[in-house]
Amino acid sequence: MPSPKSKNPVSGGGSPVLGSSNGRYDFMSLTKPLNRSSPPHQRQGSDPATARLRASESPTRRRGSSSSTGSGQGLPEEDGLRLNPSFIRVALSSLLAIDLWMSKTMGVCACEDSSWGSVRPLMKLIEISGHGIPWLAGTAYCLYKSDSATGQEVMLNLFMGLLLDLVLVTIVKAVVRRRRPAHNRMDMFATFSVDRFSFPSGHATRAAMCGRFLLAHLVLAAPLRFLVVLWAALVGLSRVLLGRHNVTDVMFGFWMGYVQYNLIEMLWLSPQTLQGLLGQLA
Ligand SMILES: CC(C)=CCC/C(C)=C/CC/C(C)=C/COP(=O)(O)O
């Protein structure tokens, strides 16, 4: 991964940055001079790019003239906010670094000789339980076998939701193009080419969406409702333990699946719509 520091000339001049050296992330001081290994003239920030950025950030220039703040004691609130223009980038880099570190640490079933390698078969079973093919096939089978109009309506909407999920996840994966973790072994069955990307986790979106769907449309006793939630959580957790995903892929996937369920509710195919569609087909 390219070093954020190398892309950010301001970082050598005292802004808080998340520096990367030899692939390792480190936090640097907000105020102390940085970059012990760089030549003194760079440490002082005398290269043209840094000098320009410094000039544009200087309080005098930002305030326009010293008279606008009187004697210069205390900055207006908006100046305080602008003091650190790269704050969002730094926060995102820090989150990313924490995400990568957590995901690597948690990838304990990534292969057979990993520390929890013996649990890998169980994790792969959970993986299959959240795969698109069993869900699509199972829903199509229930739709075919259902003899009540309500049952058919519910199953058809679940089926449409599963297709919608596949389309949306494919689009987001193709746009974001985040690589799967390096420790992942790409031995999943039935994947599309876009599944070489990891953001978001398709299993997590499906688990969240189907979990909400089952809780809303099936009459389940409390223990079964708990099992549905547990299953969805385990599907998400297994993605990280297997090394398939980073934590943020799964968290975003859960959120996306949750929202997708709202979309299903909005686009709900009623019996009337269904009859119209079937009438057109016949
Ligand atoms: C009918 C049809 C187009 C079925 C395709 C089902 C299929 C191959 C889904 C892909 C499921 C999959 C491997 C998703 C990747 O999940 P991640 O959690 O690794 O993102």
Could you explain how this protein is built, in words?
- With 282 residues, the protein is mostly helical.
- It is 60% helix and 3% strand.
- A two-stranded antiparallel ribbon has the order 1-2.
- The site of ligand LBIIBCTY has 15 residues, from helix 8 and helix 10.
**Sequence of secondary-structure elements:** HEEHHHHHHHHHHHH
Largest sheet: 2 strands, antiparallel
Radius of gyration: 26 Å
- What characteristic shape results from the CA principal axes? globular
List keywords for this structure.
13 helices; globular; EC 3.6.1.68; binds the ligand CC(C)=CCC/C(C)=C/CC/C(C)=C/COP(=O)(O)O; 282 residues; mainly alpha; single chain
State the gist of this model.
By secondary structure, the chain is mainly α.
